[in-house]
Amino acid sequence: MAEAGLSPADVCHCFAVRQAARWISQLYDQHLAEAGLRSTQYAILGHLERNGPAGIAQLAEALVMDRTTMTRNVTPLECDGLVAIVQAEADRRRKEVRLTPRGRARLAQARPLWRRAQADFERHFGAGEAAAMRAMLRAVPHGR
After folding, report:
1. Locate the HTH marR-type domain: which residues (predicted)?
2. In sequence order, which residues have a C-beta less than 8 Å from that of residue 44 and are 6 or more positions away?
3. Is there a contact between 59 and 47 (Cβ–Cβ < 8 Å)?
4. Residue 113 sits in which domain range?
5. pTM
6. What is the pLDDT of residues 88-141, one digit of tens each?
7. Contact in structure between 55 and 88 (CB atoms under 8 Å)
8. Is residue 53 part of a domain?
């Protein structure tokens, strides 16, 4: 519901979150560009490093993306040799995305750049405010 004197865009939760997300993504992308990665690609590589191989659908669900968007993000990683798409060992009919040694090395190269992006964001927004924002945003998909 619109607040008195404000336009719907001024009070739209979706618009505000997406606008902030675009600004934050641009900040991280600027830092990660030195390693040849975008923030979404960094997140995919990091997820694979932490959790091991996964199917496209699993990755999409874990990172809250649709499958086609995940495929568009994984394809350049595969072309660069950072991930491999192979048959799953447990079910040969299924394919999974695996982090390659080259992907692990790129992730290691990008990690200090990611830390700089984190520090820049905290300088811009405040460390306490950033922590509170993360906690609040993590609660959104769970309804609290």
Report:
1. 1-142
2. 59, 63, 70, 73, 74, 77, 83, 97
3. yes
4. 14-133
5. 0.87
6. 777 777 889 999 999 999 999 999 999 999 999 999 999 999 999 999 988 887
7. yes
8. yes
Pairwise CA distance, residues 77 & 74, whole Å:
5
Q: pLDDT tens, 18-58?
A: 999 999 999 999 999 999 999 999 999 999 999 999 999 99
**Dist. CA 124–CA 16, nearest whole Å:** 17
CATH code: domain of residue 78: 1.10.10.10
Backbone angles phi, psi at 126, to 5 degrees: 100, 135
